[in-house]
Amino acid sequence: MKIYTKTGDKGETSLIGGYRVSKSDLRIESYGTVDELNSWLGLIVEFLPQERIEEVQSIQSLLFSMGAQLASKSKEQKRPFPEVSTADIKALEAHIDAYEALLPKMTHFILPGGNKGASHAHIARCVCRRAERIVVQLSRVDFVDNKLLVYLNRLSDYLFCLARALAFWDGKDEIKWIPSK
Fold first, then answer.
1. In 3D, which of 169, 175, 176, 177 has the Cα closest to residue 103?
2. Residues 26, 136: Cα–Cα separation, whole Å
3. What class is the 25-67+84-169 domain?
């Protein structure tokens, strides 16, 4: 099978189910941004302790399913991929709680950074927030399972905690944001 099909040469693409849409459609923008986020997580894996890799790769797998769900226009369409569930959201919350128990209590806002892994996780957090904003826009004009919005909202919190943990594991101090007068 060839990687190029030439069917998108005029600025349109197909959704799951055969719907043809503009490549600037909110559905395309939404799953494209989720794909970008997934790529950032692939980079972050390179900075994780071995025991945390499966945790992030399972999130990546779910993001791939989320992209497929966003690429499907109809809520009635049969889907051969797992959908985001309440259990997936609870699993993210459990990871967040575990990181918060591990990390020093926050007393200030912190500046993104700390080390390469933490910096990448902060960028992923920002991409996640952008994905969430786009999916919210899409949900205002077309069907989107609300669990996708909840998951993206929790995932950005998870990525914030993961960024803090990556700096912490590396012995780096967080840089507190102290507004100048």
1. 169
2. 10
3. mainly alpha
